[in-house]
């Protein structure tokens, strides 16, 4: 039996020894047996994160309304005095006071394998988690595991972008499916995108598709390079601006149908995954003043085109189906969608 599974059983056996079928906050935090089981489980789970889907049934930790965390309870969980004060402050910031789900939220994050410092950082970044039921948190973590975020990756995603646990399952699954079906990423590539750029789950799907199509058709970049360059961490405006600036200076060229260019284009990661200073010095070979002027001109041009595009979209949409080619249907569908929205 794995260490993490053992820790889970320790906690479950400890909780089952309680006589009350519905545990309230006082029972959970002030019972010596329960507190000892909780600390044992957290210690065991935090030392081994290789097991897939080993977690406590948080439905056993239902709280009665009105019960609140205390400094002593947080100290017993392993927080320092300062951390306990900060956590209570974060817990009472929103929605008029502390949530009845605060304890089950803490339990879910501890069982995930986060230590007190990491738990505090997560909840300071996203205090909305205090108001999510423990059972919902467990379901959302399970769903991320099913999408391929195993132990280690899941902890990093939650630590970096805890807002992902506030979203319904349907939203996260819709984005994962969208990346696979509309953008032709493999299952593993879609998982890597969510792992490296978790904020993508809240992006507008239309903008997400256009960003992909811009990189694919306009820049000639394939899916594997998009994943390596972490394309979806960067805004669409930044992608277009950096690319257009290079193109205007003769430093980037759209590949022809055979994927060939007359110059050697820089890698996408060298364009996007660097600071603006390094981009200008090493790739664009331009001054910051030149780039700022270009950004202002492009922003004005794109705004004018956006205003006119809304009128054109409705008129063109009725003719699309009759003009589709049967050959290379999947890629042509993406290309036609890109051409409808392309900034001419």
SS content category: mainly alpha
| CATH class categorisation of the largest domain | Mainly Alpha
Major beta sheet summary: none
Determine the N-to-C terminus distance. 61 Å
Q: Give the H and E element order.
A: HHHHHHHHHHHHHHHHHH
Radius of gyration: 25 Å
- What is the number of helical segments per DSSP (H or I, 4+ residues)? 18
Unreliable stretches (pLDDT < 50, length at least 5) are: 8-38, 40-66, 319-327
Morphology: elongated
CATH fold annotation of the largest domain? Transcription termination factor 3, mitochondrial
Mean pLDDT rating: 79
Instruction: Determine the strand fraction and express it as a percent band.
Output: under 5%
Question: What's the architecture of the largest domain, going by CATH?
Answer: Alpha Horseshoe
Instruction: Tell me the CATH superfamily of the largest domain.
Output: Transcription termination factor 3, mitochondrial
Q: Any idea how many domains?
A: 2
Helix content, binned percent = 55-70%
Extended strand count: 0
**Oligomer designation:** single chain
């Amino acid at each position: 039996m794995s260490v993490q599974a053992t820790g889970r059983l320790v906690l479950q056996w400890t909780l089952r020894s309680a006589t009350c079928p519905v545990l309230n906050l006082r029972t959970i935090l002030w019972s010596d047996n329960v507190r000892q089981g909780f600390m044992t489980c957290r210690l065991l789970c935090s030392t081994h994160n290789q097991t897939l889907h080993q977690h406590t049934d948080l439905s056993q930790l239902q709280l009665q309304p009105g019960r609140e965390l205390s400094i002593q309870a947080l100290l017993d969980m392993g927080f320092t005095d300062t951390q306990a004060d900060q956590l209570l402050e974060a817990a009472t910031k929103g929605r008029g006071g502390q949530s009845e789900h605060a304890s089950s939220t803490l339990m879910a994050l501890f069982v995930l394998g986060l230590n007190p410092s990491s738990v505090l950082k997560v909840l300071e970044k996203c205090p909305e988690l205090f108001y999510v039921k423990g059972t919902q948190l467990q379901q959302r973590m399970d769903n991320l595991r099913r999408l391929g975020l195993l132990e280690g990756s899941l902890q990093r995603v939650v630590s970096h972008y805890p807002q992902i646990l506030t979203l319904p399952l349907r939203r996260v699954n819709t984005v994962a499916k969208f990346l696979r079906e509309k953008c032709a990423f493999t299952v593993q590539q879609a998982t890597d995108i969510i792992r490296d750029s978790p904020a993508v789950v809240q992006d507008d799907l239309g903008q997400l598709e256009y960003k992909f199509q811009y990189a694919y058709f306009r820049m000639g970049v394939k899916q594997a390079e998009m994943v390596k360059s972490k394309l979806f961490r960067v805004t669409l405006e930044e992608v277009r601006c950096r690319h257009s600036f290079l193109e205007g200076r003769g430093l980037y060229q759209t590949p022809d149908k055979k994927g060939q260019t007359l110059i050697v284009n820089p890698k996408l990661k060298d364009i996007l995954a660097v600071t603006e200073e390094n981009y200008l010095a090493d790739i664009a070979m331009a001054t910051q003043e030149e780039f700022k002027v270009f950004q202002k001109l492009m922003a004005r041009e794109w705004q004018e085109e956006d205003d006119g595009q809304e009128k054109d979209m409705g008129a063109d949409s009725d003719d699309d189906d009759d003009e589709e080619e049967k050959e290379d249907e999947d890629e042509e569908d993406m290309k036609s969608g890109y051409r409808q929205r392309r900034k001419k």
